[in-house]
Every structure is written in C-alpha cells, then in structure tokens.
User: What shape does this take?
Amino acid sequence: MSDEPLVEHLFRHQFGKMVSVLTRIFGLSNLEMIEDAVQDTFVNALTKWRIQAPDDPEAWLMQAAKNRMVDLFRKTKAENKHTEQLYYSPGAHHLNELFLDHEIEDAQLRMIFVACHPALKPEEQIAFALRSIAGFNIKEIAVGLLLPEETVKKRLQRARKKVVDQGIEFAVPSGADLLPRFNRVMDVIYLIFNEGFQSTHQAQIIKKDLCGEALRLCQLLLKRDEMRSSKLYALFALLCFHSSRLDTKISQEGELIDLEHQDRTQWFWPLIKLGNEAMNKAMESDELSTYHFEAAIAGEHIKARTFAETDWNQIAHWYACLLEWHDHDIYRLNLAYVHIQQGNFANAERLLLQIPPKNLADRQYLLFGTWAELHKAKGDRQKANASLKEAIEAVTNDVERRYLEGKLRG
Assistant: This one.
C-alpha cells in the first residue's frame, strides 16, 4: 500500500478514535479544535511519510495529534497550566493509560452517546456522528445526506454549540437516561450502515467503509455487559447478513448485480455465521423490534440456495409483522415486491397504490421500479417500460441508473 492510500485508510479508521480520546483529555468545549488538530495531523503525515513511513502508523498519528493539540493550546495562550499538568503532574501516568485500547473504546462509546444526546435534533445527531465518530468531512456528509455543504456546516456548528452551551457530559448515561439514548444510538448506526449498503452517492452504490464502521460500532456496544440486549443482537445480525453479500452486489466492471443474479457461493460465510449466532441470542428473550423482523427477512434470503428457492411465503409473513410493528411505506413497497414473486398481483397493486411517491423522497425510483416489475410480471411490456423510464428519471445514483437502463433495453 503506497503512503497516500495508507493515510486515507487510516483516516477513515482512526479519525473517530483520535477525536474521542483527545476529547476525553481536552474536553468537549474544544471539540472543533481537536477535529482540526487531527485533520492537520493527517495532512502532515501525507508529507512526512513520503520520505519514510513510521513502523507503527497508528501510534505515530495519535502522538502527533496530541502534540498538535498542545501546540494549539500554547498558541492560544489558553491552557499553559493545563498542558504542563498533562505532561508533568502525577496525573501524567493516567494520561498515557487513556491511549490503551480499552480506554480508546470507552472514549468512543462516550462520543457515540454525546452524538445521540436528545438536545440535538435527529438531523444534527447524524451529521455529528458521521463527523466525530466515522470521520466524514463536510463534503462527504453533504453528498451522503443529499444536502448542501452549507447546511451540513450549520448543523455541525449548531450541534457543537448545543454540546457546549448545555454542558453535555462526555459520558455514557446511566439509569433511566440510558435506554432512550441507547435506542437512538442504534438508529444512528442503522442509518450509517444503510448509507453504505445502498449509498445515495451519485457515483457509488456501496461504501464498504461505512458498513464496516457500523459493524464496528455495533461490536463496540456488544462488548459492554450493560448494553447487550435482544434488540442490539438483532441489529448486529441484520448488519452481518447484509454485509455478507456486499462483494457480490457489484460486478468487476462496476455494474449492479441484483439479488436474483448474485453468486451465492461468494457470500461471506464467516459473517453469516456471526449473524446466525447473534440472531440466536436476539431470540433468547421476548423482546422484539423492527431489527428482529428485518434480520429474519435477510436471514430467509441467506438460507435460500437459489433465488427460485426463496421462501416468499415466510418473507411475506415477516413483512406483514413488520408493517404491524412499524407502518412505513418502504416496508409496504418491499411487501409488494414479495407479492409479485408470489404471483399475488392484486395484493401487490393494492399496496403500491397506497404509496405516494413523495413519501419515499430520494428513494421513489424504487416505487417506479417495482411498478415496472408488476407490469412485466403481468405481461404488459409497454407499461413496464413507462414505469422504468420514470424510475430512470428519478434515480440519482449512476450505477442504479445503468442497471435500470439495462432492464429497459431488455
């Protein structure tokens, strides 16, 4: 790996760790300065590593970021006493311990819960999490969330201001505060994964780094006794099942391969095994969640040796349960697709007619695409093509557009 890809790889995987552990040292009130310092460190690494890369790049980055923070404090003349204490006081030994692996994980957990604090609006939570935990820059967040960069910038500024003004603690909540915040943490992880699994990025349909980050955050939570729950295990199972198929979703030429035509022998079985183990644990209690049903559906697809052997009746049952649990048009749309596979065209049409396209926002091309599947299954090629053209008009991702254009060409 040449230096630039190495630095880019480390940035994606280390940024959140570095920001979290430095925040534990320097405090949330200095968060923006910390992020700038970590950013500067990676820029510096790009220059220095062209001459010679360090033996331990991660350690080099963490030490360099810490030194950069101290430099910034000195330049702002804000915390000379503070920096002296960091290095020369009896607490200095404790400072070094904060860079041990388990302490870094603890710092990241604290940051996740800060990102999901109820003082922040949901849209601010996601932007804050993508920046401070996953290491996205403003442009990447803007592309990922389909927002102008200025909007993202303002959301981050508002989030940081609320964190400081409201004195939000850099801590994992306890007691009655834990559960509602924990639920939001899982929601944010789910959203991060979805953005990776079916990206809204114009040129990319998959972002493996995002999927990997969501899996890693999930595993981080599962390491804590007080956070292991049926719902968390179900979420982890869902992410594992979906992740096992990532490498078969795109051909070597960069084209989308749908579920029917994926090479199932290439699905990654170690992740499926992990998912099955997590699903078994998720079913040890009576607690259920949308993650349970979504994981059950993903598990049915995993079990089928071929597309033709898919148990559509069982999947239809799980989607019906899911809709009872949480009425959402995306679940209604997926159930309609299942009815098409079952040959229940009237049920599929009834469900599709209930979905206003605007309710699916940037995913409304999926509605038009499913209409096309229904018309095709009924033998009406003219209507199928008309729906495909609507889908092509609405889709924003280039890979999906080429896939739809291919279907239109027949």
